[in-house]
Design a protein that fits this description.
Layout lengths: L6 H25 L11 H25 L20 H15 L5 H32 L1 H9 L20 H6 L3 H25 L4 H12 L5
Helix pairs in contact: 1-3, 1-4, 1-7, 2-3, 2-7, 3-4, 4-5, 7-8
Amino acid sequence: MAEIPDGKRREKRLERLRLQGFWPVYGAACALAYTAPLAEPHVALIGLRVFGLALMLLGLAMRLWSFGYLLKRAELATAGPYGRTRNPLYVGTWLIGCGLMLNAAWPANLGLLALYNLLFYYIYRAQIGIEEEMLRSIFGEVYDEYCRNVPRFFPRLSTWKVGDVSEFSLTRALKNKMLQPVAGLLVLLALQVLSWGLLWPVLRGQSAAAAWESLVRGACVGLP
């Protein structure tokens, strides 16, 4: 396996940045979900929350799709989502994060969205740079041709394919731990629901029992 100068140390530093930067922002997106989606005062704000949920599901789908084509460091994935963007897993992560921020309550969601994108740009640009060094050292000209034809991040409309590329494999996706992002997203969504359905009603003076009863009855989405 090719060694990238200082690569391991840089990756460890980026891993610390992800933990120290993103998880507090994810926590804030849950804690600041102080209004249920259907309880927003304007239909446009409700639509913004629904759009956030759609982005989360789209990002999850992108990650699950990508896992089925990825054979780390043994094969250069160029099919499926990798024929549209060189980093579909990170695109999926970005969409999930943007959706989670938008699913917080107005107007906190816009501030969180801006903060999240700033962190994402700073951290993942460095992460992608390290991985590109590694892939170029392993695959050489093949990877250079791939870079010339497929964008680094935002997907192209048509798929680029070259040579004998892999097909989607559910077995491969499971080996790549495709269920982890599903579980993670479910946990984050559950925390947001508990925030607007239980935490904030209690903070506003409602009893925990009454808040729970209301949550079960429909307050999880904002029904009266």
